[in-house]
Amino acid sequence: MDYAEIYEKLVRPEGGKIIILVLDGVGGIPKSDDIGTELQVAHIPNLDKLAEESSCGLLEIVGPGITPGSGPGHLSLFGYNPLKYQIGRGVLSALGVEFDLEKGDVPARVNFATIDKEGKITDRRAGRIDDETNKRIVQKIKENVKLDYDVQYFFETVKEHRALFVLRGKDLSGDLADTDPQVVGESPLPAKALTKKAEHTAKIVQQFIDRAREVLTDEEKANMILLRGFDYYEPLPSLYERFKLRGVCIAEYPMYRGVSKLIGMDLLPQPSIIEDRFKALEDVYSDKYDFYFVHFKKTDSSGEDGNFSGKVKVIEEIDKQIPRLRKLNPEVLIITGDHSTPAVLKSHSWHPVPVLLHSPTAIRDDVDEFNELACSKGILGLRLGMHLMGLALAHSLRLNKFGA
Amino acid sequence: MDYAEIYEKLVRPEGGKIIILVLDGVGGIPKSDDIGTELQVAHIPNLDKLAEESSCGLLEIVGPGITPGSGPGHLSLFGYNPLKYQIGRGVLSALGVEFDLEKGDVPARVNFATIDKEGKITDRRAGRIDDETNKRIVQKIKENVKLDYDVQYFFETVKEHRALFVLRGKDLSGDLADTDPQVVGESPLPAKALTKKAEHTAKIVQQFIDRAREVLTDEEKANMILLRGFDYYEPLPSLYERFKLRGVCIAEYPMYRGVSKLIGMDLLPQPSIIEDRFKALEDVYSDKYDFYFVHFKKTDSSGEDGNFSGKVKVIEEIDKQIPRLRKLNPEVLIITGDHSTPAVLKSHSWHPVPVLLHSPTAIRDDVDEFNELACSKGILGLRLGMHLMGLALAHSLRLNKFGA
Q: Do the domain assignments include residue B402?
């Protein structure tokens, strides 16, 4: 049940401030039977103290057994039903390089590839060319490829063999099949429309590919491009439109900055170390914003690397900064994750994520530790991630009564 | 929310094995304030130990306060939304005698009845004739009743005064009213179409009833048939189609075998004693199957009989075999029920059912007993029964990530 549609109707613009700290992938599973999860092993006196003074629980971010990607994970925490608001791969790629998408844009992922004289693919990643080569080739294409159609194209470096293609113009469509056949020994597929209205777009894309190929003829490795994940950019309703929240994002990685921008949050300059995030939060904390999203990536990346002790260490570093948050004294302070990333699994997982909600109106439960097992006994129970926004709005006294 | 539609999109055919033990109606309520539930009273060291090493919780099989029938109870555990996939009474009856339904069949329940010379019903159950008489009369009808239509009919013994009628042919409909008026002193009702498209079927059914009545004229007690629960058989999508699971069913009772067959599981020969089920599981455990459903009926039937100590004893017998399961070492081992059947109530009930999920990727919680109260404190929380399949698929590493 998507209660956010009700929140939209009940919300008022006045109310307290909400800070949400997202420790990306913070949830884990025990390393072994006698060693606990990353959060259980970490020495986190400040988070434990905060849990003791908060309402605690577990969030099932997308649904039972479902492992969230980063996009759905964050949309859910922001009160956007991740089953309804799905971000495609092309749009995600554009977000990842902070490309300014406009409504109606058609973005796609690009791989540089190697083809032989017969045009068969011999390497789908062009020998993983380095970033410098990538930039040089991208520049070469931008300078030399002109299209006969009344459209604008963008071609941007990502890294290694990857780039971003965006088509901008009237009446475009993202209903195009990948040109990457996913195997070597075959020719790249033509740009194929999957619906009638995409036929025009397919012609433009094919011309772009043909001309890029001409320009790349003299390249040794990256002499072809493969496109996939075609998408159509339809802006999401903003956090302000939906919940009357003026939001600001404090995050380092483009992907999370991109999702925040997608829903109309302002972005602060990229903080590189953990302390900087808290400093940035303190500096921006004012009447200008109602909703402060602070993102920490390293919990997830150390989990993905299978680095259990590294993840523990990052959690402990974040813990040291928690007292600074307390001093800001927001009406609502939430600490949680967008999904679990157990170091044992080296990947995102479906396990529910601990959450604490600190507020003058939140009932303190018996939970006095911030971890999966302790929070499972909290008064917030086990909930859907997308319902967290309702609690945040309620505890910041931003929701009117439902019915008389 | 029916997440199973998401599971269908995320599922992959590779992954670990899943064993689910269904102790039919295992949940109970306390016999009195100082005596616990059947599970609390039972001495079940092996189940308790397993609970200690598992994630535990409670399943609300259909929904809050809803007492599940056996069909919805099992469909829910298999990940089929019981509100969407409803099995009609006619189809259930057919399953109960392991009748091989085909798409488009119209099954109905039959009661033999007694009518007087004026055709008024004097006994709706024909004095509960014995099984032998039933079989004789069924045979008599099959030999002597021919229909003028281009259809095939089946008429099968169930037991006592009950039988099964199935009509097979083109363009049939199950939209027919019962011919059983539910009271004595009245005449059986004519076969009445409830929709226009059922009119043809109503004529055929009426001819069958008329001719059966002629054939039964010389019977003392069972001289009439009453039909009810007309149904139309539309096959369900299989467990493989939905979740890429190759399933096998180890169950004694036709009803549970029937539901399993309905969703494409293979059936093993009927095991009569508890040990035989475990033996059958050990024998069939191989790369041929991914999903092993083992069913125990006696927990439910002793509950239905109000036999508290009998139910305790059955639970204890099952407990003794649990170590055999552990040796198979499946990636996911689930023990639960399809509903509660408290001996105190002598019937199915709505009380949530304890569940344990044992897996290398499952977080052990503090629960160290397998019963209603203990499991209510587990990390799985209180969940809808139909979401269990999502956890089973996730823990057997069969679900891809949702979104990027």
A: no
